[in-house]
Input
Amino acid sequence: PETIVVSELANRMAERAADVIKSLMKMGMMVTANQTIDADTAELVIEEFGHRAVRVSDADVEQVIQTVEDKAEDLQARPPIVTIMGHVDHGKTSLLDLIRQANVVAGEAGGITQHIGAYQVTTESGALLSFLDTPGHAAFTSMRARGANVTDIVVLVVAADDAVMPQTVEAINHAKAAGVPMIVAINKIDKPTANPQKVRTDLLQHEVVVEAMSGDVQDVEVSAHTGQGIDQLLEAIALQAEILELRANPNRAALGAVIEAKLDVGRGPVATVLVQNGTLKQGDIFVVGEQWGKVRALINDKGERVTEAGPSVPVEVLGINGTPEAGDVLNVVETEAQAREIADYRIQAAKDKRAAAGAATTLQELMAKA
Ligand code: GDP
Ligand code: MG
Output
């Protein structure tokens, strides 16, 4: 049920809370400034004060941000979004760094990579892949908990000199729960103590049957130190992406997920957004979580200014009125009024939720004391 706190209602009308309470009293309602009233009553009060009520509901928000399905003929292939997971010290960061560096052509103008939370690489066969720069399970699960599914493929890194460990099992469970296919990268194959076969048999116990064991999970032996197997790993990812037939509609209002955000001293709030559908363009008006804005500039993973970013492309977005949170969804809308209204609505909804949670705790505390 839609409700509003009396003081908040007064605030929004720029009226005194005492006057609103008086008006409610005339209607036969005895309330304090901190109590909530239902939307119908609020609407009567608003009219009483000569204002016009505009109700925003979840349904309105959904309508504004175009949750419409794309037509099949509008869909085009998009790059996969890849997350690297695995046990600590098995080589996730080393692999991510190696893959990124291998793609920077020495001496190339603008070839200096920027850490913006994600980057894109091109495989030898010409496939484009997007990598999330934050290995680790916390990011994966917290994003998913916030409703942002930003991973198409998980690369499970297992050190050949160590085999399956607790966080390896955790990663397997995350990938399975998310319904995301895995590719196993058996790393540190350069080490004299490497035993890739042990990794494969260990994985069997967790119902991960790799191709070398006649299963359907691709496995590739790699070394983040020598670079061995990296090209094969990238091609394995490209192949998996083809099987998944990932599609998006580049010709619609953009929808994306924030993968990291910060308040930059010089540039203001900056968010790295992974575009999931549509194309994000300079000048677009958007709402992102409880914030909104107008795209002032877009900067790609090479630190270059770009005018637009299509599906699966990570970009830094400038022009946000506040700092959003990782996992927040960005939606391009038509007008600033819509963007502001949705952001306001979300702020209020979050406040109400906290207030309700607070009230529940107080009640529990009271009952515990009794
Ligand atoms: P993470 O915790 O999974 O991110 O692992 P790191 O990338 O930080 O690697 C942990 C340690 O293993 C570091 O000392 C790396 O230099 C080393 N390492 C990573 N990959 C390899 C590899 O392929 N071969 C060898 N010999 N060492 C590696
Ligand atoms: Mg690391």
About this structure: The chain is about 35% helix and 25% strand. The mean pLDDT is 89.
